[in-house]
Amino acid sequence: MGIADYFQSVEAMTPEQVREFLDRHEPSEYNLVDVRQPSEYERMHLPGARLIPLPELADRMNELDTDKPTIAY
Amino acid sequence: MAGGIKAWQGLTAAGLPEAGMAFFTAAAGTDELIALAWLLEEGSRRFYSALAAMRAQPEVAGLFGTLAEAETNHKSSLLALYRDLTGKAPGPDFPRGLSAAQDADDRMEGSVRVSEALTWAGDKETADLLDLCMSLEADSYDLYIKMGRSVPGEKAKKVFEKLVAEEKAHLARMADMLDGLDLQGPDC
Q1: Of the partner residues B12, B139, B161, the one whose CB lies closest to the CB of residue A28
Q2: Which residues, at least 6 apart from B147, have a Cβ–Cβ distance to it below 8 Å?
Q3: A15, B165: Cβ pair inside 8 Å?
Q4: Could B161 and A13 be called an inter-chain contact, meaning their C-beta atoms sit closer than 8 Å?
Q5: B145 and A48: CB-CB below 8 Å?
Q6: Residue A7 confidence (pLDDT)
Q7: B102 in helix, strand or coil?
Q8: Can the peptide bond before residue B92 be classed as cis, meaning omega within 30 degrees of 0?
Q9: Cβ separation of A41 and B10 shorter than 8 Å?
Q10: H-helix or E-strand containing B144?
């Protein structure tokens, strides 16, 4: 990742857009990532979301298929 | 997602990533995952069958009856997958022999006890039942996505992808019925 990547904006989807996306696609077509802590995930998460707490994200990026769109929350 | 989960207005699931698989004492192998799924589907089948018998409205009884049939089909798919992956027919103690839980027979999707759910459901309106069922199906949808990631081989993943798609369709059908009930008003 080069320095120019820090200035790339990341598209933010509204919750409604996310819901429409999830309705239109099968889980195998995207990465859905919950970056919160396990206790937060345990209380409530989006169905099918993969838990990768933010402090671990850099080390666990290989768990995600980078050819697929990724939605994080 | 802007706003995070606090801004989310849709179905959610609960439990840690390994939730639902905790009935098994050892790390869940493929046969254990299939046995778990079969158990939960059988519990849900019994629950939906009981609800179908309890509801006087034909369209509501029909929906629950259809859901019960779907769970039977899911069980068949899982048994076929078990045979394919293990090379043998399930033993006489399947699936209970693969589960350490004392009350494995009484569990359904969402890991809820069937007996408790039926006791709760006795005097509830249809909208309340659909709310519960949607919550349970959302947990099942969540669990099957995780199982699909865990099982080895494309064939096994395809079976769980099919189950995921069907759970999603069940959720949509229940949501439609719930919307229809909102328009009609409370049960007569």
Answers
A1: B161
A2: B21, B33, B37, B160
A3: no
A4: no
A5: yes
A6: 61
A7: coil
A8: no
A9: no
A10: helix B126-150
Average pLDDT over residues B82-92: 86
Q: Which residues of chain A does B11 touch, with a Cβ-Cβ cutoff of 8 Å?
A: 47
Whether residue B7 lies within 8 A of chain A, CB to CB, comes out as yes
With a cut of 0.90, is the ipTM above it? Answer: no
Instruction: Tell me if chain B has a CB within 8 Å of the CB of A24.
Output: no
- Give the model's confidence band at B26: pLDDT under 50 very low, under 70 low, under 90 confident, else very high: very low
pTM of the model: 0.79
Report pLDDT digits (tens) over B137-179: 888 899 889 888 888 888 888 888 888 988 888 888 888 888 8
- Please list, residue by residue across B45-72, b when 16 or more beta carbons sit within 10 angstroms of its beta carbon and e when fewer do: bbbbbbbbebbeeeebbebbbebbebbe
Q: Give CA–CA dist B98/B146, Å, rounded.
A: 19
In this structure, of A6-10, B44-48, B71-75, the range with the lowest mean pLDDT score is: A6-10
**CA–CA gap between residue B36 and residue B78 (Å, rounded):** 10
The pair of structure tokens assigned to A69 is 């769109």
Q: Which of B8, B139, B141 to substitute to test the interface with A, most A CBs within 10 Å?
A: B8
CB pairs under 8 A between A and B: 79
Question: Residue A30's pLDDT band (boundaries 50, 70, 90)?
Answer: very high
> Could you tell me what percent of chain A has a pLDDT over 70?
86
